[in-house]
Amino acid sequence: MMFAIDEINRDTDILPGIKLGFKIYNDCGSTDILMAVMTLVNGLDQSETGANCTKPPTVQAIIGHSGSTPTMSFAKIVGRFHIPVISHFATCACLSNRKEYPSFFTIPSDYYQSRALAQLVRHFGWMWVGALSNKNDYGINGITTFINAANEEGVCIEYSEAFESTSPYHEIIRIVNIIRTSTSKVIMAMSHREIRILVHELYRQNITGLQWIGSDAWITDDSLADINGYTLLIGSIGFTVRNAQIPGLDLFLQEVNPSQFPKSIFLKDFWEHVFDCSLNPSEIRKACNGSENLRDVQNSFTDLTDLRFSNNIYKAVYAVAHAINNLLSCDQNKSFNSNSSCLKLVEIKPWQVRHSLQSINFTTPGGENVFFDNNGDSPARYELINLQSVNKGKMKVETIGYYDASFPKGQRFSMNNVQVVWREGRHLVPVSKCSESCPPGTRKAVQKGKPVCCYDCILCPPGEISNSTGT
């Protein structure tokens, strides 16, 4: 976010003569974000830069939160004030409901991802699968859409279970027992914390041979290699938003320092942690001497190999900037100002920014086209990810295919030429069927009380024939 705003403020082609300000709140994954939201709504925030400026009485847009459930709460609140909210990671399809969340914009919702995952399952011939999710809005909505889409593809669901990472141990054991006794070998999982707990217990009980399909909630999380039993997840596949390069970000990170943003608590804490020094007089730590820089630092902050969700934040900032820029352009604001005169920055209202966001269409400095559909969703384009083993205790994320919902049906999914690693490092595509195909001379007879994927093969009646497999 800081880089995008700095880049925009230096650019003479967008918002010339105007500088964007910002305030970053770290919600630490909790609902404390509501307090921050009310501060922004009431116009009580202070800019991170601390610069003197003329600004509107209230914030023009909010970027975040990453979680769907917290987002649902605060998006409804700020929606009453017509303040646009752009999330980089909250993907619950429920947030695409324009009646409930008229001011919300996001990356592609789980409606598209879940349907893409169902087509993925069908592509590999997995007609018999299990489904797991957590009990929050993201998990329930995502897995429900997946099951409905899978049924449309002719895929049968052996079981569908929801649980929480905070569930009692006996509940985890119940889920493990379902997996142990099931005949399906492919499991679709929508949750992050839950899969860590579940895999740990599966490993403890030596339950192996499962092919995992993951949502973007966990499929790119290399920290999963830290858990006991991570080898069970090697070979997992799933969709996530496409990776991207952000030109100039590396140089910005190398040059950034607390003196540029003296009011940034995040940067202060980060700096003191990385260099083990104090920016304020302290008897515990040595004082930072000003010579510290990030050029030689190697950690998750400076690692730019995976910018999937960082790029979403980058695009969100640019989206707001372009929306405001359009409002300030004389030939763009006729629907916002009856006398068609140019708006001034202090005159812009959040509802005008929201309205302008709906019609933006621009290309980022990195060459990516950005726009939103009528529901506030951006185009559904995904990479198919495969978790592969590098060495003991490490996994790497390998892109093995692509999905683009804008393409005609039948052309949306494609594989590249990268070698796929399947369950637990194997190289053969797993098989997951309730029943084997019926040979010639027999026909299917659906088993009573079972899905259509489960059947017996019985001999054809006298005078009738079946001369092909699977009829």
From TrEMBL:
Domain Receptor ligand binding region, residue spans: 1-388
Record bears the keyword Mitochondrion: no
Gene Ontology molecular function terms on file: G protein-coupled receptor activity
Compartment(s) of residence: Cell membrane
Domain GPCR family 3 nine cysteines intervals: 429-467
Keyword Cell membrane: yes
Main location: membrane
A Pfam short name: NCD3G
Recorded topology in the membrane: Multi-pass membrane protein
GO CC field: plasma membrane
Keyword vocabulary terms for this entry: Cell membrane, G-protein coupled receptor, Glycoprotein, Membrane, Receptor, Signal, Transducer, Transmembrane, Transmembrane helix
Protein name: Extracellular calcium-sensing receptor-like
Organism the protein comes from: Cyprinus carpio (Common carp)
Gene: LOC109088570
